[in-house]
């Protein structure tokens, strides 16, 4: 079972890879809309990648209003 | 299609539609790969009537207001019909608002009943502003887990009254819905839409984009939005067509739905349409050079053959590889909620996929103009719909002025805002605040906004005063939020931005610490409401006797600054 820290790190790594930003440049408290310059649709795409990676289903409502990696990771963690 | 001239209300028309088309499919609901629901009009009625009875048994009386806060799904429409059946006024709220904003609007609307989904209720019931909404006496919650503690709320699925509900007739002039076009922070703007507004709008829209049994509409835009309410509920229902709901809006499942359900119409906001364009373009770019050349040639042939009007059958045969993933039945993509760039519209039209772009406002009962595709014009928002009188007022030398509209689809006013209503509707004409001009062929072209507001590509209306609360007690002398275009008009409907005008204290400097403070507060706003930059203004803001900022006067003064150097991105 992953810890929340591990999950958060994996979320950051996957986001870096998916959006082509240097590894280590994203932090848990970062606002992903702002930091990655993405819109809500691109966020949904990122969620699909995360679902595949973690092998979970993350309903759209679970991420409604979420904009930072740490909260996103905790929503994932609760479904692992 | 029912003859709507015979009807007084949405409820009465829907009631007859459920009988007329009883064996037709009306709703399909899908969650990822799984189809969750497929209802005929008869099934729909059998679900809605016990709910209407339960509402009446719980004390819901004619004219009472009931709010729905749900994602797009079958229970949204079933609940809405039950409310209309019982003679109620529907208050559809945006499920994407924050819980505090939702409570604020619930209170403002005077909704006596709230019908919502469990995940939304979970957040609502934990929100600090919950105590504000004292008027909501009953809450129904859908899809709550078995052991969930719902507090005083009831389960939607268990809300079955026994016996038949009483149908309550309404008249055309009665309010059917209170729709919030914007204004969740400062001054909520609840548009009071009458039954007549919807009946007339439906007649006008279906005269251009007809629905019938077998037609399938993919409902993606939130149903609380005026467009989806009309073309994703009322319009298809009174014609016996079907509505398809997806419980997840991940692009891959949306793409799949087109082919799986042979979608006929879909409504999108410009942002999603542009995303679709990018996806298709990337697919074309990845083709080997030979295939790419063939595709380009076919697109050129299609373009030449459809210059005068769309020829769907021909385009589907010519560009099979493009049309097949859309299911082969797609007639039109309806785009709304915000301005769409001409090159995006042209891209789809050249592929043989007409995009019905138009122009509308919630206050006008959705659409005012729409492109009738005879011929297609990407540089305009089309001609006025039947029954719409549109004129340009206070024209400048080049013919550009404010767009004003008069029709039976115009709202009766803003809820509890007589002054705002009087400012907006003058002698029966709705002053839109948008700048436009008619060309020689009667097509309307838009050139920006007169109002201090922006509309995002996702179709969200943002009023600057609504987001100022987040900057309260900012350590500066005074501040004010503006739409950049309001200060420096640039005659464009796209790329709109918000800015924070700041007047610093006497010895204060705009340093990194202050920039970070502004940025941190900005991130508390939903991403589409965020400001893009700061403008420093070194004089006292002009104020009224009651010390309110005179926004117009301040905007005029700031406009004297050079935008290029004054606007400091954050």
Draw up the topology in text.
The complex is a heterodimer of chains A (80) and B (570).
Chain A: H1 4-18, H2 32-36, H3 40-54, H4 69-77
Helix pairs in contact in A: 1-4
Chain B: H1 10-20, E1 25-31, E2 34-40, H2 41-57, E3 65-69, H3 74-85, E4 89-92, H4 99-109, E5 113-117, H5 118-126, E6 138-142, E7 154-155, E8 175-182, E9 189-194, H6 195-208, E10 216-219, H7 226-237, E11 242-246, H8 251-260, E12 265-268, H9 270-285, H10 289-305, H11 312-318, H12 320-323, E13 332-335, H13 342-350, E14 355-361, E15 366-370, E16 383-384, E17 389-393, E18 401-406, E19 413-414, H14 418-424, E20 425-426, E21 429-438, E22 444-449, E23 454-455, E24 461-462, E25 478-483, H15 484-487, E26 498-503, H16 512-522, E27 533-536, H17 551-558, H18 563-566, E28 567-569
Parallel strand pairs in B: 1-11, 3-4, 3-5, 5-6, 6-7, 10-11, 10-12, 12-13, 13-14, 26-27
Antiparallel strand pairs in B: 1-2, 8-9, 9-19, 14-15, 15-16, 17-18, 18-21, 20-21, 21-22, 23-24, 25-26, 27-28
Helix pairs in contact in B: 1-2, 1-3, 2-3, 4-5, 6-7
Write a concise keyword list for the protein shown above.
heterodimer; A: 80 residues; mainly alpha; Non-ribosomal Peptide Synthetase Peptidyl Carrier Protein, Chain A; 4 helices; 55% helix; globular; B: 570 residues; alpha/beta; Rossmann fold; GMP Synthetase, Chain A, domain 3; 3 domains; 9-stranded mixed β-sheet; 5-stranded parallel β-sheet; 28 strands; 32% helix
